[in-house]
Structures
1.
Amino acid sequence: MSKIERAEVFVASPGRSFVTLRLTTSDGVTGLGDATLNGRELAVASYLREHVVPLLIGRDPARIEDIWQYLYRGAYWRRGPVTMTAIAAVDTALWDIKGKVAGLPVYQLLGGRSRDGVLVYSHASGADVPELLDDVARFRELGYQAIRAQAAVPGVGGTYGVRKGVVYEPAATALPEEQPWSTESYLDFAPAYLEAVRERFGFDFHLLHDVHHRLTPIEAARFGKRVEDCRLFWMEDPTPAENQEAFRLIRQHTTTPVAVGENLSSIWDVQQLITEQLIDYVRTTVVHAGGITHLRRIFDLAALYQVRTGSHGATDLSPVTMAAAVHVDLAVPNFGIQEYMPHVAETMEVFSSGVRFENGMLHPSEEPGLGVGYDEKAAQRFPYEPRYLPVARRLDGSVHDW
Ligand code: GCO
Ligand code: MG
């Protein structure tokens, strides 16, 4: 029997911070897992190093489900982003190993292709409306069939989703940047720029928008109703989702589709949203929702209720997660869309990936396993630099949801 012989945790910042797990079996097969939790990287690295690695050595890498149950139920302390990200890293690495041992790309192990490619959306943004429109034009030229639009709200510094450098990277400062927020200004401004995008470019592509947890349910209902003529593919995270019931009120007022789940980590966190059809797209990901094994469980539940998938894919999800996501997206029957933000050059000096972008779609590598690599030597050139996500404050100085 093959055994897990080595488990190494790498923490590095090639362009941004990533935590990566590499498992090696007694047969010399390696598997990679992403364990990155933006702004809380070392909590997962330590959970893995101190509490998971010692339990893995000597186990049979073929028993993916059993190891998942062992780490989840065996911890006694359940759910939560740190635990679920750590379990995800192990699970993803084990699927990588299983694919390599079988000589098959992971999507084949998940039932094979359900589609030819994976529809993706990327992020257009602007410091003002003309800049946003130019950016949408650029993404159209690059062949994207789905584009998310965000513009800086006048008078509200550092609005969510507006790119400063080559890619949108919100975790940019050594301590959290504090950004002002005005719901009133946002509600006045955002519908107008979404309309401007449709006026200039028409309707033959999907338009998305991320509210990023900033509204109350009734404000979100008003926003969704107001933008119905823009025919959004979705409005994302209109209100925080700790209280799943809150989405019923939004639903009662608007036909704008709703997407939720990028910061949720288990099937229990989306159970009511799915079974009561309070959302249209579930955005849980491989890395933050317990790996391929658990994500597949969430997606299968969603399929029963005609909820489609729309996994998170910002740059804080490493190329290992992106590859794993493409394998899952290709296989599941209820795939909707995949978020995709290409990583910066430094990141790709450390990770290699066979994922290909063509005509607005992603395609997986046909190599056995996930088709990703990690260059540990290259990673040493990029030591870990802590970076935090911003914190939002209302104009009266009180803390708001960022
Ligand atoms: C998205 C997300 C991200 C998150 C980031 C947090 O829709 O891509 O909202 O931009 O804010 O991933 O780590
Ligand atoms: Mg989002």
2.
Amino acid sequence: MTMDVKKAELHCHIEGAASPELVRTQAQKYGADVSGFIQGDRYVWSDFTEFLTAYDGAAALFRTEEDYALLARTYLEGIAAQNAIYAEIFVSPDHATAAGLSASAYIDGLADGIAAAKSATGIECRMIVVGVRHLGVESVEAAARFAASRPHPLITGFGMAGEERFGRVAEFARSFDIARDAGLGITIHAGELAGADSVRDALDHVRPSRIGHGVRAIEDENLVRRIAEEEVVLEVCPGSNMALKLFKTMAEHPFDQLRRAGVKVTLSSDDPPHFGSSIGHEYDLVAQTWGYDAATLTGFTRTSLEAAFVDEPTRAILLGQLS
Ligand code: ADE
Ligand code: ZN
């Protein structure tokens, strides 16, 4: 339905983008059993904690540079076929090292996959290193130091994912200072599993230009006004939000309310095969729910590109593809 609309996504966890089919292939390669989290052609989980277990189980089956190159390439070529021209992927050195791969080999493998997808389809991609909140402050700081050491030119941002209800944002502020001082773009998951206070804490302590999700800011109208005024961009993942039961129906999802309040909203898939989402599906979902025309949908892509953690010449080229 929205096939002709050029798309960009800012929020996708690369380990969470591995299809059950690809994970099964990896499991065969390593002689592993995936029956605890994949049944048939589907991931199985029933709440966020179980989702994280499935996510970690899949990630544990990517163990070499080649494995990660295959994952990035497969994912990016898939979204290029949905008319995506740009993507940022969250990359998690903690998941690589847990699987026995060094952080630098992990990044090199992903970069190979990104290069292969670019030469096959033209899609442009950048990496955002994330720390995993529930692994604790030390771990997130180590991820920030790694990102700040600028191990690869395609790493342009730093963020934090994981269990939002773990710890207080203020405890992680130093990690974001380290990344910001190194010139990286800053985003943070907030307002997904926790409410408006979590988003406010993120704004106060981390000063991000973007927030991952942020949709539960809708619980506080002053906060919505602040987000609009400060022009903080929300990486909204409607399919993910519905799968995690944040809202009962799409009609109750706050995407359109936020948009009408002047908040800069964008669309992303988060962890596509876990949530039955994809960048194409997200554009379809909001178009079906609120009847947006092609120009409005392209506007979301423009907002994404304007907020992208990418160099200015590349941004100009990408924006030029929208006109
Ligand atoms: N890691 C992967 N997906 C996530 C999500 N939706 N929220 C927080 N952390 C995540
Ligand atoms: Zn996410």
